[in-house]
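Work package 3, deliverable 3.1, input record:
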Amino acid sequence: MPAHDDMREPMLAAVPNLRAFAVSLCGDMDRANDLVQETLLRAWAHQDSFEPGTNMSAWLFTILRNHFRTEYRKRRREVEDADGGYAERLTSPEAQTGHVEFGELREALLHLPPDQREALVLVGASGFSYEEAAQICDCAVGTIKSRVNRARKKLAELLTIELEQEAEVQPEILIRRAV
Amino acid sequence: MKERTRQQPDEPMPETERHEDPPKGRLSRDTQRKIGQQLRAMYTDVVNEGVPDRFADLLRRLDDKDK
């Protein structure tokens, strides 16, 4: 049985990154906090499965990612049942997160398939290596690389279109963003 | 799964691959760079919020319960 003091501090230290990852996945801060809470509860209940000396952050991200995937599948079924109410909410992530300045990026992220979204965020923002991201997503390194590339391309397309459209109306926004 | 990483301790973080040429197509390196910056800025924005009380409380409760 591992000493709890050894678990609590690193788990607490991982919380800010877990929240950032969670909100990137789901686009909703309330839901992100719930995902993190469930992750901590599961991690605590299964701390025997953590191997001391290995990367605890990657272990926690794996738990969060798997929980999100399960939830996502469940919610998608609910959406199909509930006639698109959730999909409608997805179109205004800035209203849910309170992070207005990144609203467009959050919205664009939500338009990526979940496989690509998680790969891009893990490698492009969380700072994991391709190998670690592959471990977290339980797939091959080559698969992660290809998902990241497709995600970048798709995201650039979504955001460039938006930037160009805005530039026609308000060119100063584009200039401010580019700085 | 942990074993896999441990078997490659010498493998460096693929820094170079993050700056690799963009996928073939109309995307410029500059566009990719801006998107990367925005993504990290969005992420860091949440990281900087630190640890909300509910999580510190939760872990304290779990810890106390196990003692």
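Chain A has ten helices and no strands.
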